[in-house]
């Protein structure tokens, strides 16, 4: 009997809420970009968990900093005490933000961070005498979290549908899937066209009722590392300014350095009003997230009685000590530089694979937030038939061959299989070689099995 089966062969309680076709092994230990299971089998963590473990597993300096903090205090309630790690991390983080974003509100994860952004935006509207503003426009598809508020702005029907009676469904615009378009427009023109969909939606909804627009500057799993044309980003800001609407960047997956800049939006010098961060902030060492807001928004809220929102674990000293040392490691090892260099190398390798496997229709992303999409025809970009379940099979084959990747069957409003390759930012050139060798064999096996 395996250690994680009960005497009756049932899965134990901790597994009961998850449905998995493959019985997952127990993780035994992890180091760098590798994880070993209970049987001693070593696999490459090619998705950094869920794009979380940005600085790699078992970083000695982070573990030591956590141990030092554990010996001092692991909890001090925020209504009774400030704590030094939270203070230091807030100061350091605001140094990585666009100008003016210097109000940091800690939480324990991505959904909490998004929830906090939505609630701050609403309280800003109330504090500035705009009570009619409450709608938050977002993109379809998108993923902003699992709590009811974050789900209300999420563009992912299957996740949202069961809860529709319990939440206020928010308006969506199409994600900027310019790579799928077959028209005579340039990419820049397409970028403007997609951004203008926001203005159309604002006018359709009534500009006075719209509070904010939330987007992932570089898409995560829902779109497969979708990058909009350059023209999209400044036009979105322009439209938000024109209608007095707040711009929220959900950087839960794209932030904390994964794309080679600290924020995904930094590639275009974006100026969001509020940013949501998590995943790479605690980098898997502790649950940690943050909302970082422009002081211009926070001041009226504080003047009108304060931010009516909070979590018991917010600003936990142990989590913040971990986050602070994660930031130290990003700087000490120049991991932004490495994500840029290694990301460019890995992307070039993926493009090389796309030349050899014609069912790869697109390779995209920035830094180490990279994805490849499967198609049945590159000219039309038609997806593979759903029945092939290619996105599942590619993950299973890669795993059997020793590589963890992440996949989904969603793209701009229609179905399509993509997989993400997002190893930790410490990945070396030689390790890119290991990843690509496994991917190559995986794609060859997939092509054979599915007659692609
Ligand atoms: N926002 C984005 C862009 C995400 O990718 C995720 C998680 O994948 C979330 C929010 C929710 O984060 P969490 O699962 O930590 O609540």
UniProtKB/TrEMBL annotation:
Statement: the UniProt record of this protein carries the keyword Transferase: yes
Alphabetical list of InterPro entries matching this protein: Aminotrans_3, Aminotrans_3_PPA_site, PyrdxlP-dep_Trfase, PyrdxlP-dep_Trfase_major, PyrdxlP-dep_Trfase_small
Pfam families tied to this protein: Aminotran_3
The UniProt record lists the keyword Nucleotidyltransferase: no
Cofactor: pyridoxal 5'-phosphate
GO biological process: L-arginine biosynthetic process
Molecular function GO terms recorded: pyridoxal phosphate binding; transaminase activity
Keywords tagged on the record: Amino-acid biosynthesis, Aminotransferase, Arginine biosynthesis, Pyridoxal phosphate, Transferase
PANTHER family: AMINOTRANSFERASE, AMINOTRANSFERASE CLASS-III
Family: Belongs to the class-III pyridoxal-phosphate-dependent aminotransferase family.
Name under which the protein is recorded: Adenosylmethionine-8-amino-7-oxononanoate aminotransferase
The species this protein was found in: Shinella granuli
